[in-house]
Amino acid sequence: MGIQITPSILNADFAALGAEVARIPNADWVHVDVMDNHFVPNLTFGPPMVEALSRSTDLPLDAHLMIDDCDSNAMSYAEAGARSVTFHIESTKAPIRLARELRGHGTRASMALKPMTPIEPYAELLPELDMVLVMTVEPGFGGQRFLDLCLPKIRRTRELVERSGGEVWLQVDGGISLDTIGRCAEAGADVFVAGSAVYSAEDPDAMVEALREKAEAAAP
Ligand code: DX5
Ligand code: ZN
User: Fold this and answer.
1) Ligand 1, closest atom to CA 144?
2) Cα(44) to centroid of ligand 2, in Å?
3) Which stretches of the chain are assigned E, i.e. beta strand?
4) Burial of 171 (0-12, 13-18, 19+ CB in 10 A)
5) List of E strands, 53-96
6) Which of 14, 19, 24, 157 is surrounded by the most beta carbons within 10 Å?
7) Phi, psi (deg, nearest 5) at residue 75
8) Which DSSP helix (H) or strand (E) runs through 212?
9) Containing H/E element for 21?
């Protein structure tokens, strides 16, 4: 599939989300950060917002659920039109069942890991997944500093993905900028979320392309 750039709208203007998404026509996906003020100390969108967004753009939506009890709550984001749904493993009791439910609906199933959650216990789960998200900040807010300590986990995840057949995308999220994207691509990431880097740029779509170029140049 190659390198993909998925801007996060967390740092966009919430009063004009349709117009904000229209500013990034070259993005591969739109990353929607769902926060419930329990799993993380911040509150954002629910399924009706995802449904409205999916009607307002042709770009596919990548829902990143930072919520409690993904087992009960994740499917409503698939039903709202998200083409990829990422559940945090820290708030999912039955990830095999959930991944199968998502895929059964025709939605890409993705598992996220907080910075201190290891990938190794989940190696056997990889064939059930379409993507793994390695968080490179503590989830909850945009605009945080990239955590270099996550780079070895990106490398180990890439190794496990290759061993399992290489079909699983490897996403990174948090502090991704022109400065940090090359390090992540070099370590094996291929899907890049960028929030503040894209939406604080004067021309967000030009930033999407600049990020893509940097990642492509650094990819192994
Ligand atoms: C953080 C969110 C991120 C956030 C990234 O919890 O999951 O998607 O929007 O924002 P930046 O790119 O500014 O770190
Ligand atoms: Zn996110």
Assistant:
1) 14
2) 12
3) 4-7, 30-35, 61-66, 84-88, 108-113, 131-135, 169-173, 191-194
4) buried
5) 61-66, 84-88
6) 157
7) -60, -30
8) helix 204-218
9) helix 17-22
Dihedral sign, Cα of residue 27, residue 29, residue 34, residue 39: negative
For 159: left if phi > 0, alpha if psi spans -120 to 50, otherwise beta; the answer is alpha
pLDDT by residue (tens digit) across 157-212? 999 999 999 799 999 999 999 999 999 999 999 999 999 999 999 999 999 999 99
Residue 10 Cβ contacting ligand 1 at under 6 Å? yes
In angstroms, the CA 214 to CA 220 distance is: 12
Alpha carbon 203 to chain centroid, angstroms? 22
Q: How far is the CA of 162 from the centre of ligand 1 (A)?
A: 26
pLDDT per position as a tens digit, 65-80: 999 999 999 999 999 9
Confidence at residue 166, expressed as pLDDT on a 0 to 100 scale = 78
CATH superfamily entry for domain 4-218? Aldolase class I (3.20.20.70)
Q: What value does the mean pLDDT take over residues 136-148?
A: 98
Give residue 143's pLDDT.
98
The response to whether residue 194 sits with its C-beta less than 6 Å from ligand 1 reads: yes
Supply the pTM of this predicted model.
0.98
